[in-house]
């Protein structure tokens, strides 16, 4: 058993990957394909949670692929790691647990939501999870690029899953163009970094920048990486693909797409903090990230106001929430070399990382509710919907919880994370805190509008026969709502147990290097 | 200036190719041309990686053929890692191009045009 535990990091990526390629063989047996997929998702969730618990207890954990002793990074007296390395610190384990949880819930939700080609759908979903987990667990720049591509190609297959309509295909094409350019940038930057430092390992690169400083090529590489990852995270002004892709993908996939965006944010902050954290260059990155964040905050909230399509409305509101995370982590970056600001930087980071998990949960919750409405009524148009609260009371209630959370009102978890962000960002620059607060209030308006338009008002004739969605779908929404409320009721405990270790892991570059090499 | 350019010619060429591909992707509205632009960008990065690993008068990095240390014909090996990266990246860009072309075909079937301006239905 102890030997198997050693291999958990590799298994967490390997299980979904293996099942993704096994499922097409079960094409003829629909039920067994679904059961196999759910089993794989559940096993991966268990592995991710186990790794999180293990990393929180024992600190950073590494796994070198194919080595006799997986725990050794540099075998045979080599100076640098020659094998592909997985290095999991508290931040990666945290992101991995979020991704696996959302994937499991999305899988359960899809049993009833997807009506045809189950094996194809679940195989792509598993591939997406494998990509996301690989992206957050990897300790190697090139491996990061590969998993980045696995993640984006499988998500395009899922965005354009309903091929019989033109819109999903268009959304898939847009997302493909964006992610292909982003990954070409990443590969170019990986080449530049390899030419400069001679290693591909993230910890090795980090040590090299600590020892020898940085050169001009590093500036280009850093700029390319920041562009690529913020493009994929959907930060304004590169946000235009978000409403299209989120709006047209099947609802459960949209929840996973939000995770994919968060994984890109993970990559951005892993590079910024861990590789380039020691260089004075980082302040420039910090300002770029804060500007992206403020733009996303404002654009997302205002564009959300004018939407008529339910999922596009939620997608734009989600962009403004990404803005919160970007602003918080940008302030954290700006405070690295600024001693008086450091406590506020750490606090902002706590708010930002806490907001990552909250954002993943309530964004998924809202999209799942929107999917439930779409499943029963066949439309996402707010002008056509109305009076559904009588027919779908549970969905209405869960949507209300999601709306409260995205607007940052108590007792939801987002209230706690947003308060942390406002307080700390205020000391950095009061104006940014004010913009964040105003955008957060602005988001209330589209949520109230959507809730009234869908669930309140007189009953509409053609929706008289609408029923509540099946229990499995309600169960996933219930779990997410419960998580949102529980995290909101005990924010202190959550921050202590999982958020602060993740923040500390990001902030201490030398601990990462020491832990891996 | 010219000396610097000629010394770094492969890198200059790959940067130019990258810009040309980017131009096609950003300013052409035909979906097939966008796919071509993306393909050119991918090749530019591959070229960059190969140029990065090349050393003057080096031999192929095959370990069993490596000359002994101090041998008469001792030569440096080209760096193997960028070549491995390039192989992976070629495979990935093949998948991306295939996916992009198939989405372009589907768009044509649904809308009857390959012009992104005319085929686009998602706005706002």
Textual characterization of the structure:
The complex is a heterodimer of chains A (517) and B (124). Chain A has one domain. Chain A has a two-stranded antiparallel sheet. In chain A, 76% of the residues lie in helices and 2% in strands. Chain A has 20 helices and two strands. Chain B is mainly α and 124 residues long. The chains are: A mainly alpha (517), B mainly alpha (124). Chains A and B meet through α6, α7 and α10 of A and α2, α3 and α4 of B.
Q: In short, what is this structure?
A:
The complex is a heterodimer of chains A (517) and B (124). Chain A is mostly helical and 517 residues long. Chain A has helices at 2-6, 8-22, 30-58, 90-113, 118-137, 141-159, 166-197, 202-212, 216-233, 241-248, 251-275, 282-305, 310-334, 342-377, 393-406, 413-428, 430-455, 471-489, 491-507, 509-516; strands spanning 61-64, 85-88.
Main traits of this protein?
heterodimer; A: 517 residues; mainly alpha; two-stranded antiparallel sheet; B: 124 residues; Helix Hairpins; 0% strand
> Secondary-structure element order of chain A, as H and E?
HHHEEHHHHHHHHHHHHHHHHH
| Shape label of chain A | globular
| Helix count, DSSP H or I runs of 4 or more residues of chain B | 5
Extended strand count of chain A: 2
Tell me the CATH architecture of chain B.
Answer: Orthogonal Bundle
What gap, in angstroms, lies between the N and C termini of chain A?
26 Å
The pair of chains with the biggest contact is: A-B, 37 and 33 residues
The domain tally of chain A reads: 1
| Sheet having the most strands of chain B | none
């Amino acid at each position: 058993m102890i030997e198997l535990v050693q291999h958990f990091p590799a298994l967490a990526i390997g299980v979904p990957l293996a099942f993704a390629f096994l499922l097409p063989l079960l094409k003829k047996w629909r039920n067994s394909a679904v059961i196999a997929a759910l089993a794989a998702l559940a096993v991966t969730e268990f592995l991710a949670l186990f790794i999180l618990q293990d990393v929180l207890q024992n600190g950073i954990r590494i796994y070198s692929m194919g080595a006799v002793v997986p725990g050794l990074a540099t075998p045979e007296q080599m100076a640098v790691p020659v094998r592909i390395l997985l290095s999991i610190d508290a931040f990666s384990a945290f992101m991995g647990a979020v991704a696996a949880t959302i994937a499991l819930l999305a899988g359960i939700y899809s049993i009833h939501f997807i009506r045809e080609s189950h094996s194809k759908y679940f195989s792509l979903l598993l591939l997406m999870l494998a990509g996301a987990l690989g992206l957050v667990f990897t300790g190697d720049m090139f491996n990061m690029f590969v998993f980045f591509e696995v993640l984006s190609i499988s998500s395009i297959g899922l965005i354009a899953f309903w091929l019989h309509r033109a819109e999903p295909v268009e959304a898939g094409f847009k997302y493909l163009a964006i992610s292909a350019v982003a990954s070409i940038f990443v590969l170019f930057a990986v080449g530049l970094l390899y030419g400069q430092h001679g290693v591909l390992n993230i910890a090795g690169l980090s040590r090299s920048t600590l020892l020898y400083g940085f050169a001009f090529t590093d500036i280009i590489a850093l700029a390319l990486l920041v562009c690529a990852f913020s493009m994929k995270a959907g930060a304004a002004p590169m946000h235009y693909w978000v409403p299209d892709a989120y709006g047209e993908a099947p609802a459960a996939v949209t929840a996973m797409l939000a995770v994919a965006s968060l994984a890109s944010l993970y990559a951005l902050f892993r590079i910024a903090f861990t590789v380039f954290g020691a260089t004075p260059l980082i302040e420039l990155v910090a300002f770029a990230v804060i500007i992206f964040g403020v733009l996303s905050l404002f654009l997302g909230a205002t564009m959300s106001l004018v939407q008529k399509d339910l999922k596009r409305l939620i997608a734009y509101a989600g962009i403004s929430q990404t803005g919160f995370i970007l602003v918080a982590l940008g302030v954290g970056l700006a405070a690295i070399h600024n001693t008086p600001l450091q406590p506020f930087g750490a606090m902002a980071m706590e708010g930002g990382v806490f907001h990552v998990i909250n954002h993943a949960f309530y964004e998924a919750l809202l999209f799942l509710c929107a999917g439930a409405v779409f499943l029963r009524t066949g439309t996402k148009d707010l002008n056509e919907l109305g009076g559904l609260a009588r027919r779908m009371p549970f969905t209405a209630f869960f949507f209300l919880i999601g709306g409260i959370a995205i607007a940052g009102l108590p007792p939801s978890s987002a209230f706690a994370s947003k308060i942390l962000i406002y307080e700390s960002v205020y000391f950095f620059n009061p104006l940014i805190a004010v913009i964040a607060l105003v955008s957060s209030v602005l988001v209330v308006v589209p949520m109230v509008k959507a809730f009234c338009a869908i669930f309140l008002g007189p009953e509409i004739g053609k929706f008289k026969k609408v029923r509540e969605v099946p229990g499995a779908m309600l169960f996933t929404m219930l779990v997410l709502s419960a998580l949102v409320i529980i995290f909101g009721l005990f924010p202190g405990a959550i921050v202590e147990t999982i958020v602060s270790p993740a923040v500390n892991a990001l902030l201490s570059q030398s601990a990462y290097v020491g832990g891996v090499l | 200036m010219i000396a610097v350019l000629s010394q770094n010619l492969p890198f200059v060429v790959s940067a130019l190719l990258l810009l040309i591909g980017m131009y096609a992707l950003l300013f052409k509205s035909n979906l097939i041309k966008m796919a071509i632009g993306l393909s050119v960008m991918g090749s530019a990065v591959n070229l960059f990686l190969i140029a990065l690993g090349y050393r003057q008068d080096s031999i192929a990095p095959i370990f069993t053929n490596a000359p002994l240390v101090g041998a008469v014909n001792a030569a440096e090996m080209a760096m193997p890692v960028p070549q491995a990266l390039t192989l992976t990246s070629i495979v990935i860009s093949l998948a991306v191009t295939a996916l992009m072309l198939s989405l372009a075909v589907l768009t044509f079937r649904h809308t009857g045009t390959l012009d992104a301006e005319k085929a686009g239905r998602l706005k706002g």
